[in-house]
């Protein structure tokens, strides 16, 4: 294992990530680079695991004091993990656990999916490590058709969604270009006071850089619900390997009576089904509307020592 600066790992990171069995946008180099540029404002160190000088894994983590932590910012980090070549996860976790125990380091790894290699691998090798249930990230498994989707909802939720969509008959959802990111910020600020406070300069810089980078990779799902010539709602999402990740959204409160947020997401779920996606991932937050749209509970975990 060796410590390197994030920027020096770009090519190796891309190669590992592209060959990974279960990569997610949140572990891409582009994600951490945008995070470093806008929130960390540095070129942070990461942990690199090698076999005969060939990089087999990278853990986006740093040592702060006597604790090893994952790179991230709780304002924007919904999921985190290491990246690794398939078949090398046990080797990496074993080396990492040995490093932690030899140096008597504390651990703070968050937010992780419960079935990831870090959770099972480290908890089996470091007895003092605790696995804490953390944030709810509701997940919707998509059926093969809109009809099947509606049938999967409970009667009240199905009726309400149909009623809301019928009320805005003629509204269409369409892809918009990265240049419309400013419009998304405006709608986020208008629709929610907390989001207005959330949109600090570093947050908007992170979003803008991420939108451009993910657009180049073909993962961006920046979409607007349009009624006539007026945008009533927008979502910032990512689409990758049959999964849509809903990252943020905003709507025009002038159309609040039309439930523009639910309408925008409902239309996008319909689009995702038509695109043969398997999952619609609502990410962090246990807002009631996610469950009314059919999502089920899923929790991330935090590893602490």
Automatic annotation (TrEMBL):
Family matches, as InterPro entries: Acyl_CoA_acyltransferase, BioF2-like_GNAT_dom
BioF2-like acetyltransferase domain ranges (all copies): 156-290
One Pfam assignment: Acetyltransf_6
Designated name of the protein: BioF2-like acetyltransferase domain-containing protein
